[in-house]
Amino acid sequence: MLKTVILSLSLSLSTLFSFSQDKPNVVLIMVDDMNDWVGAFGGNQQAITPHIDALAEKSIIFKNAYCSAPLCNPSRTSILTGYNPSTTGVYGNSKIFRNIKGFENTITLPQYFNQYGYSTVAAGKIFHSPRGTGQKPKPGSDPGSFEIEQKGGLGSTYPKEDNRFQHGIDYSIYKEGSHFKRSFDWAGVDVKGETTNDWKSADYCAQFLEKEHNKPFFLACGIFRPHLPWYAPQKYFDLYNVDNIELPKTIKTDLDDVGPIGARSVQKKLHRQLVEKKKWKEAVLAYLANLSYADACVGHVVDALNKSKYNKNTIIVLMGDHGWHLGEKEHWTKQTLWEEAAKTPLLIFDPRNKTKGVSTKIVSLIDVYPTLIDLAGLPLKEDLDGQSIAKLVSNPNTEWNELAFTSRGNGNHTLRNENFRYIVYSDDFEELYDHRIDPMEWHNLANDVSQKEVLKMFRKELKKIVK
Ligand SMILES: [Ca+2]
Ligand SMILES: [Ca+2]
């Protein structure tokens, strides 16, 4: 009897001891150009995303999460450096933060974990690969950030044999695609899901999770779809019927009260062509199909983790890099300061924490770096622009009054709080939207005298961030 007690006591002590010694692993999944059209995030009721939805069921999901910049490179740079575009000056796709004075020795998120004993591994697009003037494409824009990066150029994995799935390089499938526009093409492709690049990235991560690791790991998985071109295995297109596709809600006069800079950022011509050629529904379907395909890739990684020995001690963070317009405000793609481009899903699953649910508090992808440090119990990094949202992971309804800050190019910024979006462009034109009554941001209230105090507050808040 005594022996049993001593044995169980020593067992539980050793469990306790090993737990406190074990740092949690991190799996970070980034889905390129994913807006909130994911079932669990409620942006579009038609979306079929069973794998992310299942993960969301046991996670804290952030329904009001915003990017720092509505474009790949500046958004990813800010996520991975922890600095806003207004801090680094990286607003576009052509700048590499290491080339900017003062940021040469930046410790990126994976590097920070590496400093504290983590092995760091990436597959697929995590960093963006800028190809600016005079800058050669690099294999990942920050070689050295991860100890191991799965082979492949342009910061991602595009093996030659899969050139039909390449990004911007070989559009040979265009001949059999939508015939809409070469740079804006879509098609269901007759290939097995397992041979596509995104599946390969996911599979690399799945295999990593099946292996024995003697150090805690930070594993990053970049899924490229639903980034254009929308080529995905046909079976994901077959999930949807074009006749049943519902278009985003729009009003004809929406652009009448936006600023000239905002109006210029709109792809009006593209929208007109899509409408005239009756391709709007088809394009929406193609985006949804590619989202479903990305969801399957995410599921492959999460399934492997669930089956692995790491399932009780691995934090999962899943996010997009920014949102996407599909006809709202007559716009397609990204690169605006409105809700559609600024908002993206963010989800955190921490198996050590039994809380799950939805947080509608305003958070930003800039918060991911300090949050992961916090959750992993690593020392604070004081110079980061974001802040830990770990307390929202413990209690999604805890007191929280933060603003999300998003920039598009120098001088064009937006702030979002629980009720409003405020935008100011470099020509000082302002927009203000009340999300309690206007979730599509149709009616600009910046000239409404009753909103004077709200505007004043936002101007003051912005001055604190952009000096
Ligand atoms: Ca992107
Ligand atoms: Ca409007």
Explain what this protein looks like in three dimensions:
This protein has a single domain, classed as 3-Layer(aba) Sandwich (Alkaline Phosphatase, subunit A), CATH 3.40.720.10. It is an alpha/beta fold. The strands form 5 sheets. It has an 8-stranded mixed sheet, with helices on both faces. Strands 15-16-17-18 form a 4-stranded antiparallel sheet, covered by helices on one side. The protein contains 14 helices and 18 strands. Helix 2 (50-57) crosses helix 10 and helix 6 (197-210) packs parallel to helix 10. The radius of gyration is 22 Å and the shape is globular.
> Main β-sheet, in a few words?
8 strands, mixed
Give the cofactors and ligands: calcium ion
In angstroms, what is the radius of gyration? 22 Å
Per DSSP, the total helix count is: 14
CATH homologous superfamily title: Alkaline Phosphatase, subunit A
Structural features:
467 residues, alpha/beta, Alkaline Phosphatase, subunit A, 8-stranded mixed beta sheet, 4-stranded antiparallel beta sheet, 18 strands, globular, disordered N terminus, binds calcium ion
Q: How is the secondary structure organized here?
A:
Elements: H1 2-21, E1 25-31, H2 50-57, E2 60-62, E3 65-66, H3 72-81, H4 85-88, H5 109-115, E4 119-123, E5 148-149, E6 186-189, H6 197-210, E7 217-223, E8 230-233, H7 234-237, H8 260-264, H9 268-276, H10 280-307, E9 314-320, E10 325-326, E11 332-333, H11 339-342, E12 346-349, E13 357-359, E14 363-364, H12 368-376, H13 390-394, E15 404-407, E16 413-416, E17 420-424, E18 430-434, H14 452-465
Parallel strand pairs: 1-7, 1-9, 2-13, 3-14, 4-5, 4-7, 6-8
Antiparallel strand pairs: 2-12, 9-12, 10-11, 15-16, 16-17, 17-18
Helix pairs in contact: 2-10, 6-10
The structure holds calcium ion (CA) (2 copies).
